[in-house]
Design brief:
Layout: H1 21-25, H2 31-44, H3 60-71, H4 78-85, H5 87-97, E1 104-107, E2 124-128, E3 138-140, H6 143-156, H7 158-168, E4 185-189, E5 194-203, E6 206-217, E7 224-229, H8 235-252, E8 257-266, E9 271-278, H9 286-293, H10 298-305, E10 321-329, E11 334-337, H11 341-350, E12 354-358, E13 377-386, H12 389-403, E14 406-408
Antiparallel strand pairs: 1-4, 2-3, 2-4, 5-6, 5-8, 6-7, 7-10, 8-9, 10-13, 11-14, 12-13
Length: about 425
């Protein structure tokens, strides 16, 4: 919410929270209950409802168009959102607009033994059609790893997949989606190269890309170390990203909404490959756009919802570059010390161009934190702005040392170290 209050014209707007993060992301999603609660809040409001916005994945991404339709506010269609959120349907749509995607197929979770889909070879990624933040996404290199990944996905796929089926019932599905449902597992051949993200929006049918960011991973890991803006890719690669993004979003049929698309760029072949489409901008990037361009990317979401073209500025911020860093740990443990709000505020004051969010609380077991990926635990998000990459890293290293996070390296029973 603090970053949302920094959009241009925020002093002329009033934001009202409909649902809490805990209601949206903890436990199995109860979509009808969430919809009823949001409608109850809106029905009880005695002012004008000028826009309904959200920047989280399912269920927020689907609640926004459903509520917008009911209350007469602007939004993209529910169908266009689902074409992005449902990873299998999304691949089918991408295939109609571009060949810049990996080979893919469905995995039969009920088969014994489970097998990869025909034509998809190792190494590959297995993932549910719906998930949060790479939850239940596994890279696999052989049959043994494939079987273990399928077992974990079987156990956890219903948490989001079952409630998503309520959404699919509201849409006229094409023949290729008959019988697919929300609890489907997707296999995709692994992609390689540099990972990047494209952010943009669609206004009155016109697709605009307003930023490209680099996503740098930890060494020998699929986990993000940082998102960095602007991208350091060569101009021809940036042009490819713009072109494919525009074609795919026109195929999806999105309008009056933001989007972010993740890609791999292979420096050897100079080709791009589309990883996934998100029917929203990334709140993780908001501070980066504010540092570099002068306004957070929430600006685009708000202006589109009010029926306006955002006209995102460029290079009008305080810093030349910015990054969001993920301070992670790769084994389980119990948190024994976290810095308090005053300590965090002091670090931010002493280091200009820094904002810190600590994830766990004292006493938390890392493996019990919600919304983690399959390979690591997030300890803190550290946002830095600077003149160059060296300054970004220097500020990050200083913050990690100053935070003084401490925990006992005590894995839970039967919990293996993450790699």
């Amino acid at each position: 919410m603090p970053t949302l209050q920094q959009v241009p014209g925020a002093d002329q707007l009033r934001f009202h929270q409909l649902l809490t993060i805990e209601e949206l992301q903890v436990g199995e999603v109860d979509l009808p209950a969430l919809l009823d609660k949001a409608q109850g809040v809106l029905d009880a409001f005695d002012g004008s409802i000028d826009a309904i916005v959200g920047y989280w994945d399912f269920p927020v991404s689907t609640l926004v168009p459903m509520l917008s339709e009911r209350y007469g506010t602007r939004s993209t269609s529910l169908e266009s959102v689902v074409k992005c959120e449902h990873k299998y349907w999304s691949r089918l749509e991408q295939r109609k607009a571009t060949d810049r995607h990996p080979r893919f197929g469905q995995v039969d979770l009920s088969a014994e033994p489970p097998r990869p889909p025909e034509g998809v070879t190792y190494p590959m990624w297995l993932k549910p059609a719906l998930s949060y933040s790479s939850e239940l996404a596994f890279g696999v290199d052989d049959e043994e790893q494939f079987g273990r990944a399928v077992a974990e996905i079987r156990d956890g796929i219903s948490r989001i997949g079952r409630p998503f089926e309520h959404i699919l019932e509201r849409i006229d599905l094409p023949p290729e989606m008959d019988g697919v449902g929300g609890r489907v597992c997707l296999a995709e051949e692994s992609m390689s190269g540099v990972q990047v993200a494209v952010e943009g929006y669609v206004h009155q049918g016109e697709v605009t890309v307003y930023g490209v960011l680099d996503s740098i991973q930890y060494p020998d890991s699929s986990c993000f170390l940082r998102h960095q803006y602007p991208s350091m890719l060569p101009p021809p690669a940036i042009a490819q990203l713009h072109d494919v993004s525009e074609r795919v979003m026109r195929q999806i049929g999105m309008d009056s909404a933001t989007f972010s698309i993740e890609y791999f760029y292979d420096p050897r072949t100079r080709e791009i490959s589309l990883l996934e489409i998100n029917p929203r901008h990334s709140q993780s990037h908001a501070e980066l756009f504010r540092y570099v361009d002068g306004v957070p990317n929430h600006h685009c979401m708000v202006r589109l919802a009010l029926g306006e073209d955002p006209h995102m500025p460029h290079g009008e911020g305080q810093y030349t570059m910015a990054a969001k860093w993920y301070h992670r740990w790769f084994t389980d443990g119990v948190v024994r010390r976290v810095p308090g709000p005053e300590e965090i505020a002091r670090i931010e004051r002493e280091t200009p161009g820094v904002r810190i969010e600590v994830i766990p609380e004292q006493g938390d077991r890392l493996s019990e934190l919600p919304g983690q990926d399959s390979y690591s635990y997030e300890l803190a998000h550290i946002y830095t702005g600077g003149a160059d990459e060296a300054e970004l890293r220097k500020k990050f290293d200083h913050c990690v040392a100053a935070l003084g996070l401490a925990f006992e390296d005590t894995p839970a029973e039967n919990d293996a170290a993450r790699k």
